[in-house]
Amino acid sequence: MFYRASLQAAAALASLSLLAGCGLLSDSGSDVEQKLAVGTTSEPSTLDPAAAWDGSWELIRNVFQTLVSFPTGSTSPEPDAADHCKFTDTTSTAYRCTLREGLKFSNGDKLDAEAVKYSIDRIRTIAVKGGPNGMLGSLDRVETKGDYEVIFHLTKPDATFPFILATPAMSLVAPSDYSAHKIRNDGKVTGSGPYLLDAYKPGDRSELVKNPDYKGFADRKNDAVTIRYFKESGAMVAALKKNEIDATYRGLSAEEVVSLEDNEDKQSDLQLVESVGADIRFLVFNPKDPAAGKPAVRRAIAQLVDRDALVAKVYRGTAEPLYSMVPKGIAGHTTSFFDTFGDPDRKKARKILTDAGITEPVAMTFWFTTDRYGSSTAPEFAEIKRQLEASGLFKITLKSQPWKKFQEGFTKGEYPVFGRGWFPDFPDPDNFIAPFLGKDSVTGMPYTKDEITKQVLPQTRKESNRGAVSQQFERAQKILVDDVRLLPLWQGKLYVAAGEDIGGGERALDPQTVMQMWELYRKASW
């Protein structure tokens, strides 16, 4: 799931529904209370921002504040809890924010400069493996001056730092309710965002109500939102068609999208809006695994995978082949994997293996999650297995886990090969390269490439004009191709399926593909 390039920001999928007995009447200013519900197959894995670097951001964005954020239509961070922020030097190593006055947390505590410092420092202190601490590599220390001024001192130039502060992971928490040394896991939230978390039932729903003390940029067009969590997209779509919910976001299968597009059951009161996506899917290879650790094995797989067939058979045009870790729409995108491997070719793959002394079919286990990226994930991995085994060069076993256990497994390095998805933190090539490298890689396994981490990234982070760094990121992508530790598969398109009476969906998705619930409303019925 961060930045500044000329990206047409990826859209997530919004879903809302009228709660029983609640009137939702106006486009703008009715006195009648607006209550909505939102359905998704992406349940949060944590409610604590210090541990969140995944789909948990959907909820966290709406109940916490960050110093800066992305209002609708903005591709650059703008003030939220802060009144204003700026770099105070020409080298982009000192970033100063002045807070709005009168801010407070939902427990009544004052939100001041010390609370900001505490919130950022605890992310670094706790340092959850695979968590957002990996984004703070350029931060040296946080300084406060009085009640309202915070200065972030960086160890090196980093023009991307404001974009990092805008991510939900950098949300501000109340020091009295959040330990400095461990993650909060009582199912409660103490924030200062547009909504309060009135109730949370894991696996079922989150109940959000308008925060009466909120001071920030969000112009809330509703009073309450229920987020419903579905295990399967089929049940979510059925609820949509029965008017039990009014729309869906995240998790629609390709078949469901096509069915809605074609209006197969003649339910014309539904709308489906397609948006360009920057979300990507890719395979991760464990270098410590006896098979996946061999470059020849990884390169042979890269030579065999047929992305066109994968997209056509499984995603039916709702995704497109991806030949680079940086997707289309992001500055610096290339087709580096295609340039290197070309079309799928069994003979070339066999030669790669035999040249490395591998003459027998390679047995490997591929892992995927069952409840994070939608119900098309299992068919996707079945198709990858079919392709590799059809070559006669591989014997693939598929295994899967729900997201929490899956995440635990890959962060412990237990899986030889596994599938991951990535929703941009911000729309910049840096965010499709940097998170996967270093000791805090989001893949859960250290990945060292000094030319990228010590040359390419430092050079590009000095440049505020992100369009001027394409050449450096093209080089970074070539290095990743040579190594094949990560194998990009496809780039998504994202959809909003909703009743025709739901408004605001086109404004509800920020450049991080996070749903801003406050933009949603039910249109007037007269």
Total helical segments: 13
Query: Which class best fits the helix and strand makeup?
Result: alpha+beta
| N-to-C span | 39 Å
CATH topology-level name of the domain at 277-493: Dipeptide-binding Protein, domain 3
Report the C-alpha radius of gyration, rounded.
Answer: 23 Å
Q: Please give the share of residues in helix.
A: 10-25%
Word description of this protein:
With 526 residues, the chain is an alpha+beta fold. 24% of the residues lie in helices and 22% in strands. It has 13 helices and 19 strands. Strands 1, 8, 9, 10, 11, 12, 13, 14, 15, 16 and 17 form an 11-stranded mixed β-sheet that branches. Strands 4-5-7-6 form a 4-stranded antiparallel β-sheet, covered by helices on one side. A two-stranded antiparallel sheet has the order 2-3. The longest helix has 14 residues, at 113-126. The model is unreliable at 1-30 (pLDDT under 50).
Features:
alpha+beta; 13 helices; single chain; globular; eleven-stranded mixed β-sheet; Dipeptide-binding Protein, domain 3; 19 strands; four-stranded antiparallel β-sheet; 526 residues
Write the layout of secondary structure elements.
Elements: E1 35-40, H1 57-63, E2 68-69, E3 78-79, E4 82-87, E5 94-99, H2 113-126, E6 139-145, E7 149-154, H3 161-165, E8 195-201, E9 205-210, E10 224-229, H4 233-241, E11 247-249, H5 254-262, E12 270-285, H6 295-304, H7 307-315, E13 319-321, H8 336-341, H9 346-355, E14 362-369, H10 377-390, E15 394-401, H11 403-411, E16 417-422, H12 450-460, H13 470-483, E17 486-499, E18 502-503, E19 521-522
Helix pairs in contact: 6-9, 7-10, 12-13
